[in-house]
Design goal:
Blueprint: E1 7-13, H1 23-34, E2 38-45, H2 49-61, E3 67-71, H3 82-89, E4 92-93, H4 95-106, E5 119-122, E6 125-130, H5 134-155
Amino acid sequence: MSENPITFAIITCSDTRGMKEDTAGAALEALIAENGWECKSHVVVPDERPFIASAIVRACDEADVDVVLTCGGSGLSLRDVAPEATMDACERNVPGIAEAMRAHSLAITPYAMLSRAVCMQRGRHLVINLPGSEKAARENWDGIVAALSHAVKMMAGGGH
């Protein structure tokens, strides 16, 4: 366990999945635990912009987690609104993380370029859009996990 474990919330954006069917969210919980970090909250919300934005605000402002992972809702379907909801709830864009996820995934599949995922800050909280499929969520996680501790340290005022 790290000295100051990073805390997470997972928000699965889906009209068709409940917690039982959310294999991507469950996989992310396991990946978080493998790093000695803590998932303080995991919810499933409808693919609706206000529900997703509200869940992000609650995770940041009430649960006070370091990192919020949205799962699903970042593709090209007209129902995919996680990026817009993230922009509604956050102030600052952190484009390098979304770029890193796409670059990592592009080495695996050309479909990675179809992701509209964003990463943003809400105060000292990081919000990252991940895909809804378990395989893609794991791949995107692998592309960014090494930088998360440093990002959280910087947001807490720890500098470079």
